[in-house]
């Protein structure tokens, strides 16, 4: 495998590529490197490779000329032409580089495309290390560049990121590691973080190796390692569990774990006044039995603090109390205990202010009140993402306001600090029932591992 590195600072790589397993792989002919400096293709006496950006702003931009000439010297041409190998650029503006991406690149390198200088088959990858504000955007327009980001942070340049990519791909090549199976039991390889490792001595400063690892029982050891991997992932990267291939034993084990449930700090309120009618007039609408039951079930499933049904109409509040009484204390409570559990979350009230006051009394804090709407309301408060709402829940309660009729009336917005984005704001049809909309919102905010 031949990796070409396009960089303004080739000296950056002089040490990392000449030590440890990487040096052994180079000596064994498994991998080799070539460094290419765009300064060598600059056409002025100062070897200029950057200039000020059009439109103004801070920083400098890499000139397209020297970089383009560098790539063409390596055999790259316009999109659609045959290329010598993948052309990757390390930049914060790229898609996420993952273990799966590393595997794909390594697998591609096992299919030789042309002969090396020694006459043996060889494949290649070219890495562009961005600097300053990055290359002129026309480089990506002309050449088949795939841009990758190694994390949600900013570096001085792409060189450090390129080293990460090189090592993640190289170590998957046959012969690179002493034990090929080592790559199969590491973090991210199975969609989970790796289990902890121990070696001699058994007792180190009062800390002991887990007894199960000393038994010689391979089945129990494998089960312990799997569960330790699940626990570590749950603790440090719970987001990974959404995509990890979990079996029934994994799920059963995780269900027994005590995890933070921020849903208890989330509240929702179904507002029946003031809401809009089809003529966009502010009105009060009647309660709907389905709304009461289904939103209560969603609220209970995601562990919400309470579900408020708000209407200023006395007869409607009396109707609500009658429904709740039937299911929580009357015949319904005996015939359907699950429904009883869900409807116990429901509290009636006249208006949003009552819900806010109740949350304040429960928690000792004023909630962040968040409006929800399927429309792009000009008078709505600043937007907040669903992940943003999840973050707020760790600090203070949040009250989601849901509108009946044609949605919340503008006068409700004065009580709100933020507004959640419409669920399908890019779609032409955005008319979900309030019951369906809330269920989707709860899953986006809380998920199963948040």
Keywords:
single chain, 450 residues, alpha/beta, Alpha/beta knot, Trp Operon Repressor, Chain A, 3 domains, 7-stranded parallel β-sheet, 5-stranded parallel β-sheet, 14 helices, 20 strands, flat
Determine the N-to-C terminus distance. Answer: 41 Å
Which residues sit in consecutive blocks of at least 5 with pLDDT less than 50?
none
Let me know the CATH homologous superfamily of the largest domain: SPOUT methyltransferase, trefoil knot domain
CATH architecture of the largest domain: 3-Layer(aba) Sandwich
Q: Would you tell me the structural class of the helices and strands?
A: alpha/beta
Average pLDDT score: 93
Widest β-sheet, arrangement of strands: 16-15-12-19-17-20-18
Helix content: 25-40%
What would the principal axes of the Cα set say about the shape? flat
CATH class type of the largest domain? Alpha Beta
Percent strand equals 15-25%
**Named CATH topology of the largest domain:** Alpha/beta knot
Q: For the CA atoms, what is the radius of gyration?
A: 30 Å
In this structure, how is the largest beta sheet organized? 7 strands, parallel
Query: How many structural domains are formed by the residues?
Result: 3
Number of strands: 20
Q: Helix tally?
A: 14
Question: Which helices and strands occur, and which strands form pairs?
Answer:
Layout: E1 2-6, H1 20-27, E2 32-36, E3 50-51, E4 61-62, H2 64-73, E5 87-96, H3 99-108, E6 114-115, E7 121-122, E8 124-129, H4 138-142, E9 145-149, H5 159-170, E10 203-204, E11 207-208, H6 218-236, H7 248-255, E12 266-271, E13 275-276, E14 282-283, H8 289-301, E15 306-310, H9 314-328, H10 331-335, H11 337-343, E16 346-349, H12 352-363, E17 368-371, E18 383-384, H13 386-392, E19 398-403, E20 418-420, H14 434-446
Helix pairs in contact: 3-5, 8-11, 8-14, 13-14
